[in-house]
Amino acid sequence: MRWLMVLAGLVFAAPALAAPMFVPLGIVPGATYSHAVAISADGSTAVGGSYDNMSFSEAFRWTQAGGLQGLGVLPGASRSNAAGVSADGSVVAGGSWGDSTNDEAFRWTQGGGLQGLGVLPGATRSNAAGVSADGSVVAGSSYDDSSTEAFRWTQTDGIQGLGVLPGFVGSGASGLSADGSTVFGASYDGSSTEAFRWTQTDGIQGLGVLPGATYSYANGVSADGSTVVGRSEGAVQEAFVWNAAYGVRELDQVLTNLGLNLTGWNLTDATGISFDGQTIVGFGVNPNGQEEAWLAMIPEPGTGLLVMSGLLGLAVRKKRRTGDYAPNKLVAKSTVGLARNEASAAQVAGSGKRLNTMLRLFFVLLLAAVLSFASSSSLAASFTPLGALDQCSSQALGISADGSVVVGESTAGSSCESSQQAFRWTSGSGMAALGILPGGSFSGALGASADGSTVVGYSDSVSGEQAFRWTSGGGMVSLGYLPEANVFSAASGVSADGSVVVGTSTSEAFRWTSGGGMVGLGFVPGDSSSHANGVSADGSVVVGYSNDEAFRWTSGGGMAGLGFLLGGSSSYANGVSADGSVVVGSSVSTSAWEAFRWTSGGGMVSLGFLPDNGASFASAVSADGSTVVGNTNSSPFIWDSTNGMRDLTQVLTGLGLDLAGWTLLDATGVSADGTAIVGDGVDASGNVEGWLAMIPEPGTDLLVMTGVLGLSASRRRRAKRSTCFPA
Questions:
Q1: In CATH terms, is domain 385-695 a member of 2.130.10.10?
Q2: Is this prediction's pTM over 0.85?
């Protein structure tokens, strides 16, 4: 048993095995010192400013390969500074200024250099505070001598003011989420300041202040924009955490409620948050009265219950012998260095009748299962047939990023042949028909926004087959056609917030927005037709195929062919990660059609085949690009870098699911976190039917197993004789 514990320790320690490194970044010529202010998500690029007191300042970008590079200044300016950098380090945002009238936010790229982002109407200056992970969105503030307003900039829409909170006179942006959909900052007047969160759907939204306070400031946001951290000031200053479910809360109270002992601590500011919203850093006053930095971990609710269930069985026995013990896992980082303080439970020998080891282990496992099921059904594997309209057939063709909504098409009518309709399915309401455009006879849904509130697809109409956009408030609305292409259109993908729709009109890929309508994306040079199949979360990256080659389109670079696998001459792209950096699809190779995964650094890489299958086709990819789903000759697959390509039917049955009578044919969509997969198959009645499968995250199982292994090892050391457990 001990070797299992050692192995588990090595698994968790593996990420820490990278060689330590310390690298001075240098100073721009003409300056006397430099400050780094941000680093790219992949760790390859640092940005900041190099200075000579107040007479000189220049933004810089540092890479290990290229060293320190001064980024220059905008025309008419004499100074610059960097504020943020994209995930891969290719885009830098900041500000450039000279005298008091020509301050301007900038966006820098290797190919285009510094690009001024302009100012809002009525303002004279601007400055950038941050940039999205893919570099397509910049947030900051635009101002004059009397007022300031937060802005959000995109290549398509330019600089757009975000407004101010009701009752306030100004606003300023402090940063934005990784996907660029959420901007955070503060709105102010002469007597108070309130943190805000802005999204395209909800606009500017005040986050409130803590009880007794009059000021609040937002400092950081999770990658998806759902969690904001900062500080609230009044008689005292306190760190806060905000989400839509609970509103603004005192962070120290949240941590205390999770069982952490913060006696003597006053958490005064939360300054940063991890992508997943579970790790928060900041500073406060420690029990010795010193200001000290700290790091706190807030587990996901389901994970916390699983860990608790493992500890509870052990705690019940220990409590009878030693009394209560409250573990403390607050990790503190001092201003001098980083120190990890982990309290360990005292083990006191005692007496008392011991339960049989097997029974105690069974109790822990049973309790874990009960708590897991009660806390969140998403932690357990499941397989859900979606049914069909009028008990006919159905195909699931897309799923919302949060996994709550499935869309597709279902035959309907008394004969099950009279009509095909787009549907939207939720666990609470089941399958609901979305209707058909006036004068039409059929429709189908192909994509959904992140929360499933917007659905896109195609519908027959009095004018022919047309792309549509559906919302609960507005119903099904035609998006029309491209000019001189009024034969056919279909929408195949939609951005996370529902504002950008992509698809095909006759023979050209399009991108639609409410402000700009339907705009053709053109073709790969030399081609004459194109089709769009997918879009990134923020709508800035579109993928599909042009003639016979997969493409990736951006507003800055246009349509670029992605090539083919070795020996191939045809390829097409079906899906794209949330930030647009990973594209999946299929390409002909020397042997057959093969599913591929493309990145800018690695190019097009084959995902292989399932055993005894001579072809594979990738349909969709998770938000971070790590999980791919599709089919191989009518057998669905799931792929990740750890396990490679696996037969999804075998994965589900291996998790204990009963698929008797079912033949799964295809996996067509996957949720943002990779745990919810949709597709279609032949059910026990012989009908084609859509389905939804839930696969728990590996980390959940690992937490349970680790707790059990630890309990087993502890008991085995004290056992009079070894006990063998079945594998």
A1: yes
A2: no
